[in-house]
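As a warm-up, study this chain.
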Amino acid sequence: MTLTADDVKKIAYLARLGIDQQDVESYTKDLSGMLELMTQMSETNTDGVLPMAHPMDQSQRLRVDEVTEQDNRNNFQAIAPQVEEGLYLVPKVIE
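Now compare it with the structure written out below.
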């Protein structure tokens, strides 16, 4: 797909971008090149290709999900101005 200078100006207007008149031709060429690449990629046969989460096909090292700290909620809530049923009560700030 080839864009025209008017297309680029309209896209810039809709995106609220300011483009200098001298740069319009460069943007037109670059955007047209990107759209052409997307067209080529969409025509590529991907049958039998499994999706990957990472291009290097690596797995994430994860730690064991275990509690490592003691529960201090009661100590923290003991010094809070207002607490009810384990929840901190705060003044209403939005009407």
